[in-house]
Write a structure and sequence with these properties.
- With about 325 residues, the chain is of the alpha+beta class.
- About 15% of the residues lie in helices and about 30% in strands.
- Helix 1 (about 60-70) packs across helix 6.
- The termini are far apart.
- Residues about 315-324 have low confidence and may be disordered.
Amino acid sequence: MRQVRYLSPDGHPDVPRSGVVDGGTIRGGVAGGLPEPVPLDEARLLPPIATPPSVRDFMAFEQHVDGMGLLVGVDPTVPDVWYRQPLFYFSNPAGLLGPHDDVPVPPGCAVFDFELEVAAVIGPLPGRADLADLTLAEAAQAIAGYVLMNDWSARDLQAAEMTGPLGPCKGKDSAITLGPWLVSADELPGLAHGESGVKLSAAVNGEPFGQASLDSMAWTFAELAAYASRGTTLRPGDVLGSGTCGDGCLAERWGRQGRDAIAPLRPGDVVTLDGGVLGRTISRVVPGPPVRQPLAPRVAGQPARTGEARPGEARTGEVSTGRS
């Protein structure tokens, strides 16, 4: 089953609806209590999950970790800890975009990138009141379905942030494309344990970029879900990203071939991701807003104070640009 959320051009164009894709038609959508089949190509598809309780993004593909290690010049390129446990960071549930939505460049970003991923979406687990400390078998049963994912990345912001002790911040905070649909777990029964046959590919401006097998994940979705639940509780709707597949982003290519191998994304570029049964996303990069008010660097040992300031006057602890 392929579940979608969408806006229909007829009837209630601003009311999100839910339905199931049947060939070229969305069925089961409800507006005013009446089912309304809608042609798939006439609907604006939304992220299949409205607002996830949380979004965790892992690093499950060894080739990608190795390529990023080459980019930043670390040795070993794959850290020992990656072989011992799944690694993830928390992303932004408010940053979800639909499969055909435009993607603004984040404020202050000059090196924009895409990431080809797949995510598992958590559902309820029959017989369990909560989803804490799951076994591998329970974790696999708790996966409701899978969705194609693009974790948009501001590489210059990310590079600066990663020199600090907390990992990615604004470099991974602006946008995540999900869609076009959520494929129910029963359509991919082996994927939770690493066997699906799904092939992933990306293209930039119509030119093929990279491709990979989803089955090359070194940590399975069952392992990711079980680890995510350790000592805490997962909730239905939680999103668990696989992390970028091998050769699934520009940055990995830069690590292997040099930074001149391919240019960062610019406004007007179109990124297409394809996951076979998982569908296809087509996203156009557009200009984003500038940084409205830059913050001044800190001075060691000096506490900061912020407060209201008159027009043209910097707040304490901030730099005046002389411009509004």
